[in-house]
Model the fold of this input.
Amino acid sequence: MDYLSKKYLRSRKIPSTACSGCGLGLNHKAVVQAVYELGLEVEDVVWGTSIGCAGRQTFGTWKGDGFAGTHGRVYAIARGLRLTLPPEKKIILTVGDGDAFGIGLLHLIHASRCNADMTIIVNDNLGYMSTGGQYGWTTPHGSKTDSSPYGMYEHNLMSDGMDVLGVLKHAGATFLARHVAMDGQRAVESIKKGIQNRGLSLIHMVFPCPTNFGSRELGTRDTVKIYEWIENQAAPLGQEKENTVWATGVYFDASNSRPEFSESIRKNVETIRRTAAL
Done:
């Protein structure tokens, strides 16, 4: 167990119980690294998780306060916590693509609309991999999955000019970024910016799933091949190639430019109290 794990994570959750070759550990490490580089301690963060691979593997790992939300509802819980917690307390959520962009999308849009201060890491293994490998809201067009053996052909949130980050930008989120698990320090820097934003921050992080996605789309569970497949279709923003699926880096940064949810609520409640006292 390395220094960061000893400092921030529960020893009984290390090593992870994820499938062999799963890239979720890289994403998890990037979040913990960002927390460390910002000088935050265990007591400075409340960590929330959801359902699926991302929730199952990150639930209960944080040494400090944490919670688990039912499928898609973690954002609503976090909004309530934002009203009760002191402003300096950081809320970090590790969720999956189905949780964020499927069943939880409406709650996520409302959290963006009111610019609630939380940092959301969407760990995207390109479908519903914890339930057998069905295609999802961000599955690349043409990909073979358990529920699309001839290729995923439906229009989704990452096809034909659609980008879910654009939806969240227009909904009111103030910091948005995208990375793949192999981005290393570039991903850490984006997560740090997200945590420092006093508002809704979301970092979309694609990671490899050799067990289901790799075995169906690539016909192999070879970890190296699925990692290379993702890397070859990712490129920094502004350096996209013809085959680029994931343009990585900071998508939108309007940090600290809009009133934050809990601050706005408290300000308006105080105004109402003063008015009522007259």
Remarks:
- Residues 261-277 form the longest helix (17 residues).
- The beta strands are 45-49, 66-68, 90-96, 118-124, 175-180, 200-206, 234-236, 246-253.
